[in-house]
Amino acid sequence: MNVTVSRAKPANCGLLLLGLLCASASAQPPPEPKPVLQPRVAWQDRPLGQVRSPLVCDVDGDGREELVVGTLAGEIAVLASGRVTRRLRPGVAFVVGLEAADLDGDGAMDFLVVQGSELCAVSLDGTVRWRTKPAEGANPPSLARVRVADLDGNGAMEVVTAGDRVTCWDAQGATRWVAKAEVKATTLELADLDGDGKTEIVVSSPLTVLSCDGRVLWSKPTEARYVPYSVADVNGDGRAEIIVGSRDKIEVFDAKGSSMWSAPTTVSADRVAASPAGGGQPAVIAAGTANYRGGLETWDGSGAPLGKIATGAGVSCLDFLDLDGDGARELVYGTGPMEPFLTVAKPTGETLWRNYVGTRTYLTLAANLRGDGRKELLAFADDLYAFDGSNGDLLWRHPCGCQTHVAATGATGDRTGTVYAGAATLKRYDLAGKLLWESDVPTVNDLVLVRLEEGEEPGVVVGCEDNVLLAMRADGSLLWQQETGWMNVRVAAAQLDDDEAQEVVATDGAMYYAFDSDGRKLWEGRLNLDGRLCLVTNLSVGKLSGGKQDLVFLWYRQGLAVLSQRGALLWHAQTDGEPREVQVRCAKEGSPGELFAVLEDRVNAYGPDGTLLRALDHVAKRRDRPSYVRGTGLLFHDLDGVGGEEAILGLGCLEALSPDGGRVWPNACRCGPTALKMGDLDGTGRREIVAATRGIAVCEAKGDLLCTWPDALAVNSFDVADLDGDGSDEVVVGGSGAVVLTFSRKRGGQ
After folding, report:
1. For residues 598 and 606, is the Cβ–Cβ distance under 8 A?
2. Which of 41, 45, 567, 606 could be disulfide-bonded to 595 (CB atoms 3.0-4.6 Å)?
3. Is pLDDT of 418 > 80?
4. How far apart are CA 298 and CA 306, in angstroms?
5. Structural element, H or E, at residue 12
6. What number is the average pLDDT over the span 333-338?
7. CA-CA distance, 241 to 569, in Å (whole number)?
8. Is pLDDT of 139 > 90?
């Protein structure tokens, strides 16, 4: 096309140029959308996480009690014998307050949930019966606690919520009244204080008592935001009193707010509990301090001191519960965090039993979950514990926040892949997420797949936070167990001899060990270099010298050490800083390789004899120090397909280096990767880079980002395997639970 531009008619120039551009645009097809990967959760098994507002009730009317908890993930969970039997998601971000009551008289419990300024009623099948907000506006009053009772004795249930306001609702969610008193309620109790058959409402802070219709009966100003108190009949007159603790005394108030008596304390009364008088038993009052030195004091119902108990640490929770069914309540208290124990004692202070709970206990409950009439003591710490109330034997422990470590086996022949997940228990799943078996083990610190028996399916070796090393067969049976000298055991599978079965190398602290497939200790040692004891931070294995047998690499704060197949120290090298990763690269199978140690600003390459061959500068520094993920942050792969493997680093961002130190590509991957693997995620024959720390990111071999899976899982470990044998790999992610991701290729940008 010839276009003549006339300067005498400038107005037509714009029209002609526009026509030219339109013709050019119509002549060229639009660029094809860039293909990207789409992640999808195939299945997941997540722990409860942090729990709130636990309670015990018979949820389904079968005559047996269950434990019900709310979670910060917005779930209501029902547990029986330590196993979650129901998980309800009422559509709230998190559960702060939780109560159970049969609102409609059908014999099954309904759950009342408060979150923020919202109250909702949820049926046992998870259906939200009603949802309401107590006030409109930019800053509606927040809710923190909820209780259910027939306040006025008319036979109808009322729901009471407390937070910035105290509000009463009927069983259908309609507002009955809103109290005029402004409170910042951290606690809420319902009790008949004056014996008239109607229920009063007790909240703090300030300590305030309201009538069943919301009138303020009396209020006591307090300096502290949190007022520790207990409600119980301490003088045996059939009416409940309020026992209040403060920095230097405890004080008992009657229904009218008059002080009945007070008693000085030698410890700050941060925790208060009372065992009521009745059934031939006298009242007992206890107060404990949260101060790190701890301490408890007890009084009778008239204020006469009974005694003092040295707890050895701050009192984190305090209660009186009848655990043996004799009608008399035992004193139950938790301490921590320096002495994280749960103790059951007589009111006089004599210890009946004591058990370890890992961290401070913030609440205890008595229950009969087994249905045999014997009481369990439920303790709520970082995890949930159930103890036999009579002797303190641990019945079960349900992990809530343990980090999950995962490993996966791919499909081979007629055998499909499986997933191992270890936290407070060790689980094995099939490819669809069905639980094949679960074994109680000490809290898992590390796990690795190992060929333990020739010709058999690989088993798993678990390094525990305690000084325990376990080897489990694929069917869940224990093959062997060994104790180590310290805690937080790290493990790796190694080929230390010429047979088919693998050996296990492990480290904890400054110690290192090797065991054969039957659990026999082959050798052990202590990393003592130049007269200095070195704490090992990690270990790996590789065929640095060529041949079929592995050498063992230990790295510590200022260097790395290389051990022979028999545990002898071959050489060690000092480095400027702690190595992040140590891996072997072999040019071809069977030939000697090079040992690469990733430091903060460079990668050192060593020969088989420890000679420093070269140093490669890199920019992938951990500037923000992301959380550590189990796995390697260094891979070797032929990225361009022309031969020669490039080094791929994951240290806060992705970076590829050529063997001579040239930078192939940098990638500022936002997930801050510290662990890497390769996999063919979409079955196209091309291998992608999978990186993990805060989430999962997938990149092409040339560094382009394909997709991310940002999730609040707090990734702790991950694996890549073809679980179903269809030619495409799945990504198995461990963190606060186990998740399996599949990927499909789609068109269009992200």
Report:
1. no
2. 606
3. yes
4. 5
5. helix 10-27
6. 91
7. 72
8. no
**Domain 230-398 bears CATH identifier 2.130.10.130:** yes
Q: Would you give the DSSP letter of residue 14? A: H
The Cα 88–Cα 47 span in angstroms is 14
Tell me the residue length of the chain.
750
Handedness of CA 572, 576, 579, 584 (dihedral sign): negative
Report d(CA 599, CA 573) in Å as an integer. Answer: 13
Is residue 326 a contact partner of residue 281, using CB atoms and an 8 Å limit?
no
Mean pLDDT of 467-491: 93
Burial (CB count <10 Å: 0-12, 13-18, 19+), residue 84: middle
Q: Do 436 and 429 touch, CB atoms closer than 8 A?
A: yes
Q: Quote the pLDDT of residue 7.
A: 32
Q: How far is 171 from 132, CA to CA, in rounded Å?
A: 12
DSSP codes of every residue in 73-122:
TS-EEEEETTEEEEEE--S-S---EEEEE-SSSSSS-EEEEEETTEEEEE
What whole-number distance in Å separates Cα of residue 734 and Cα of residue 405? 5
The three-point CA angle 720-726-731 to 5° equals 20
| HSE of 648, CA atoms in CB hemisphere, 13 A | 27
What pLDDT does 475 receive?
Answer: 95
Which pLDDT belongs to residue 81?
84
Check if the beta carbon of residue 462 is closer than 8 Å to that of residue 444.
yes
79-101 pLDDT per residue, tens: 988 888 999 999 888 898 999 99
Q: Which segments within 229-369 are labelled E, that is strand? A: 229-232, 241-245, 249-253, 259-264, 271-275, 284-288, 296-300, 305-309, 315-321, 330-335, 341-345, 351-356, 363-367
Of 26, 233, 35, 99, the C-alpha closest to 746 is 35
* pLDDT tops 60 at residue 4: no
Quickly count: other Cβ atoms within 10 Å of residue 308's Cβ: 14
Integer Cα distance of 384 and 396 in angstroms: 8
Buried/exposed 534-550: b ≥16 CB within 10 Å, e otherwise: bebebbbbbbbbeeebb
What average pLDDT is seen over the chain? Answer: 87
Least confident of 2-6, 36-40, 578-582, 626-630: 2-6
Side by side, the strands of the sheet bearing 66-71 are 51-57, 66-71, 76-80, 83-88
How far, in Å, CA of 304 to CA of 285, rounded?
A: 10
Short-list 251, 247, 166, CA closest to 213: 166
Return the sign of the alpha-carbon dihedral for residues 21, 26, 28, 34. positive
Tokens linked to 217: 């009966």
Phi, psi for residue 26 in degrees, rounded to 5: -75, -25
Radius of gyration of the chain (CA): 32
**What is the pLDDT at residue 105?**
86
- Can you give the pTM of this predicted structure? 0.75
Torsion over CA: 298, 299, 300, 304 (sign): positive
Looking up tokens 């490669």 gives 616
Alpha helix stretches (DSSP H) within 97-251: none
Pairing status of strand 158-163 against strand 143-149: antiparallel
Angstrom distances, CA of residue 601 to CA of 70, 119, 369, 575, 577: 46, 53, 57, 12, 10
Cβ burial, residue 617 (10 Å; 0-12/13-18/19+):
exposed
Nearest partner of 437 among 478, 470, 401, judged by Cα: 478
- Phi, psi at residue 443, to the nearest 5°? -55, 130
**pLDDT tens column, 426-436:** 999 999 999 99
Would you say 289 and 297 are in contact if contact means Cβ atoms under 8 Å apart? no
In degrees and rounded to multiples of 5, residue 700 shows phi and psi of -70, 170
Average pLDDT rounded to a whole number, residues 635-660: 79
**Diameter of the chain by CA atoms?**
116
Which CA distances in Å does 198 have to 148, 171, 212, 491?
14, 18, 7, 63
